Amino acid sequence: EKQIDRMLADPRSSALVENFAGQWLYLRNLQSTRPDVEEFPDFDDNLRRAMRRETELLFEHLMREDLSINELLTADYTFVNERLAKHYGIPSIYGSHFRQVPVIDEARRGLLGHASILTVTSYPNRTSPVLRGKWVLENVLGTPPPPPLPNVPALEENEAGKAARTLRERLEEHRANPVCATCHDVMDPIGLGLENFDAVGKWRTREPGGEIDARGQLADGTPIAGAAELRAALTADSEQFARVFTAKMLTYALGRGLEAYDMPTVRRIVREAEGDDYRFSALVKGIANSVPFRMRRAQAPDAPPQPTVARAAE
Q1: What residues contact 189, with CB distance under 8 A and at least 6 apart?
Q2: Per-residue pLDDT tens for 117-143?
Q3: What pTM was estimated for this model as a whole?
């Protein structure tokens, strides 16, 4: 356990942030994201890099300060440089270096308000409540939707010369098809809660077709209206996100997908970390001491090195 404490304090553990967070939160996808230049003329590579760095710095801060993993969703602060602050409308931030700043707007707090997440879950020319809802289901709730059925029709776009319909209206029409409704009835109402953020994570109150309507609900019927209420609903059960994080980190440490027989281990790790408020180190130590981790198959001589968390625990 002392080795793990040293690892988390070691600057070299930034590789864990880059690799694990990049994989888990889809930050790697940001590099290949190409927002439409006509719709978003201010988007450039400097902004792209700043978006990713903000999320990495939040993750790294939680790791270094050994905070509760739930703070990834609830943090009332973030890390910005001048370029990202301008994008968010935060005044009086100058220079390329990042600094910690308070987040006043509750809708912007935590990962759900990060432009990196909001951009990788959008299409080049518009938002996608479907992709955003799917991201939440997979990475916050740990209940990924089934893969789409074959031959499902694409969402109809607005046609030139005709009155624009809001994205909500088009999604409702799409869900009227029973083939589409199976998955979209769960994903769409979650993603709609983030509709005040455009396809590059900038705040907005209108879209083509009218005012933004950010009402939605979770799969259990919990109603939400906007990003702040969505975050509150998702964090009502503090154990839930800790369980998802643990499963994702264990997957990363083992270098394989989890099986049903791994889930008791995940539950035990989370249960034992509850008294420590699900702090980062408590969950990582639980993984390092777990049976699946200790009994994982020895690597072949020519196999790639284990993830940082694995090497440090050995």
Answers
A1: 133, 216, 217, 218
A2: 999 999 999 999 999 999 999 999 999
A3: 0.89
